[in-house]
């Protein structure tokens, strides 16, 4: 089982810090999965504009490949303008609708205000539902007050929620192994 840890932003550090923490907690479960961090900041992005897939640059093709070969995903995103960053939506736009079908996904998000935790429910989950992902009921929203100056998470409740997210993600991943990715309908 390969799990892709997606750092869905090209600016900022807290999203990546939360992602690293989730990786540690998933490792701690002893699941033995292959865990890989993918930072969108390391890629040269092109707008998805309907051109043939072969006409995109190597980085865009590599992103698609990484998503295709993964069996599950941890998606980490900052909140931008009450939604997800455009660069992250652009990557989702690049994927075939079946890419993430029936694969487990957990979400972590970071925002500058407490008021925007429901951005996960209203903006990101509908996209993952469209992809028919197995989205865990747990997600974790962090705010700058949960970090110290070096972006270490200093809030114990956040650590507990991340540990619980890791535990449930592994259960969903095991369930996904037994769920055929072929669908009877053709959508
Ligand atoms: C363009 C932009 C828009 C933002 N919009 C929001 C927003 O609507 N709601 C919010 O809570 N935080 C918003 N933020 C704050 C980011 O979510 C925050 O900077 C991010 O989670 C990462 O923190 P870091 O830059 O310290 O790593 C915005 C930041 C930027 C750069």
What can you see in these coordinates?
The structure is a single chain. The protein is of the alpha/beta class. The chain has one domain: Rossmann fold (3-Layer(aba) Sandwich), CATH 3.40.50.360. It has helices at residues 14-28, 58-69, 86-94, 119-130, 156-177; strands at residues 2-7, 34-39, 72-78, 104-111, 134-143. Flavin mononucleotide is lined by residues 12-15, 78-82, 110-113, 116.
Show the helix and strand layout.
Layout: E1 2-7, H1 14-28, E2 34-39, H2 58-69, E3 72-78, H3 86-94, E4 104-111, H4 119-130, E5 134-143, H5 156-177
Parallel strand pairs: 1-2, 1-3, 3-4, 4-5
Helix pairs in contact: 1-5
This protein binds flavin mononucleotide.
Key descriptive features of the protein:
5 strands; oxidoreductase; alpha/beta; 5 helices; binds flavin mononucleotide
- Compressed to H and E, one letter per element, the order equals EHEHEHEHEH
Q: What's the domain count?
A: 1
Principal-axes shape call = globular
- How would a crystallographer describe the biggest sheet? 5 strands, parallel
The residue ranges in which pLDDT falls below 50 over 5 or more consecutive positions are none
Q: What CATH architecture would you give?
A: 3-Layer(aba) Sandwich
Q: At the first level of CATH, what is the class?
A: Alpha Beta
